[in-house]
Write a structure and sequence with these properties.
The protein is of the alpha/beta class and about 400 residues long. It has two domains: about 260 residues, Zn peptidases (Aminopeptidase, 3-Layer(aba) Sandwich); about 110 residues, Alpha-Beta Plaits, CATH 3.30.70.360. An eight-stranded mixed beta sheet has the order 1-2-4-3-5-14-6-13, sandwiched between helices. A four-stranded antiparallel beta sheet has the order 9-11-7-12, covered by helices on one side. The chain has a two-stranded antiparallel ribbon with strand order 8-10. The chain is elongated, with a radius of gyration of 24 Å. The chain starts with a helix and ends in an 8-residue tail after the last helix. Bound molecules: nickel (II) ion. The site of nickel (II) ion (NI) has 5 residues, from loops. Nickel (II) ion binds next to loops.
Length: about 400
């Protein structure tokens, strides 16, 4: 299959259009319309609309019956004011595609357009999933609950994510490309009083400060040293006045881990330490650890397939089979076997910029589009021929 230059140009146009009109999580209405128009214009069947509000599912059914392989793109932008100064910079003040989701959508939609031209050669069906709300961490879960992996049942799923640390068009293959996240809130309950008479009060600020310090022990002293983990307190709110001891304080933070057992231990340690410190100082606390997003655990067999497909397409120097110890989260995990879903892989793709994602200067650019589309198209085609778990004995 040759990728026509005209499709690469259309991918670039689509990418810029999406970049110019970013929408926040679960508000991607215009984005969905733009995608639908593009897909329909290329004869791609729209199989589902409005999933979790704005999600879109498209299908390319091959001439021959066979399995179904899915490609996923996330749709949402971030509440960041763009400072790239580019011609296609965000027209929506304070909202920006700063995580490359514009590029992911253009890659997957153009791959659909390309494969639609080759449906006669496809031994099965390719499903294209455009998913809202990745940045909120639950768009994928909602889509899975709504049956996005069924009818036709998906045998394997792939996604790419921009990684500015790589050269444009480079691919990095990891077993665990993203960490588990657990947002938490610790509510410290003291007893309010006059700042002049602390002995008559229970000071939740003093307790909260000790809790923050003690939580540094979780990674340093409670978890196995070989396993990366992070406990960050990002918000501490309490009090109004300098001479009043408030009733309560609230800490909010995030736990990041890369192994399910370490995830369990870290959550347990946060609870125990917060409760113990608060009790020792005469207060009480309520710890709420949210479910968050599980780690992404890529399928080993599919990683081998991706590597075999990518090497001749991108060149040996552009395919890195090495672990990156990333502590970021990705809700792609909800599609995968470890969460009761299907085998799959999240792949890191180098983009044009080396500005970090989630910053006001990030732009996916155009140089990674052609290699990304070639990779996804070829990967879908090859995965249909060798679906996971059906290897010859
Ligand atoms: Ni992202």
């Amino acid at each position: 299959m040759d990728l026509p230059g005209e499709l690469i140009e259309q991918a670039d146009e689509l990418r810029r259009r999406l970049h110019r009109h970013p929408e926040l999580a679960f508000q991607e209405h215009q984005t969905a319309r733009v995608l639908e128009e593009f897909l329909a214009g290329h004869g791609v069947e729209i199989a589902g609309r409005g999933l979790a509000g704005t999600g879109l599912v498209a299908l390319v059914r091959g001439a021959a019956a066979g399995p179904c392989v899915a490609l996923r793109a996330d749709m949402d932008a971030l509440p960041i004011r763009e400072e790239t100064g580019l011609e296609w910079a965000s027209a929506r003040d304070g909202v920006m595609h700063a995580c490359g989701h514009d590029g992911h959508m253009a890659l997957v939609a153009t791959t659909a357009a390309w494969l639609a031209r080759h449906r006669g050669e496809l031994p099965g069906t390719v499903k294209f999933i455009f998913q809202p709300g990745e940045e909120k961490g639950n768009g994928a879960r909602l889509l899975v609950e709504q049956g996005v992996l069924d009818a036709p049942p998906v045998a394997a799923i792939f996604a790419v994510h921009a990684r500015p640390q790589l050269a444009a068009g480079q691919l990095q293959l990891c077993r665990v490309p993203s960490a588990a996240t657990n947002p938490f809130t610790i509510e410290i309950l003291g007893r309010g009083g006059h700042g002049a008479y602390p002995h008559l009060a229970v000071d939740p600020i003093a307790i909260g400060a000790q809790v923050v310090v003690a939580l540094q022990q979780v990674v340093a002293r409670q978890l196995p040293p070989g396993q990366p983990a992070v406990v960050t307190v990002g918000a501490f709110s309490a009090g109004e006045m300098g001479n009043v001891i408030p009733e309560r304080a609230r800490l909010r933070g995030t736990i990041r881990t890369r192994h399910p057992e370490v995830r369990r231990q870290a959550g347990e340690a946060v609870r125990r330490i917060a409760a113990g410190v608060a009790a020792a100082l005469g207060g009480e606390c309520r710890v709420e650890i949210e479910e968050g997003t599980p780690r992404v655990r890529n399928d080993d067999e599919l990683l081998d397939l991706v590597e075999a497909v990518a090497r001749p397409l991108l060149g040996d120097d552009n395919v890195l089979r090495q672990e990156a110890v990333t502590m970021g989260g990705e809700d792609f995990s909800f599609y995968l076997s470890e969460q009761g879903g299907v085998p799959g892989c999240l792949l890191w793709l180098g983009v044009e910029t080396d500005e970090p994602i989630h910053t006001s200067r990030f732009d996916f650019g155009s140089t990674a589009l052609a290699p990304g589309i070639r990779l996804l198209g070829e990967l879908a085609y090859q995965a249909l021929q060798k679906p996971p778990g059906r290897a010859e004995p």
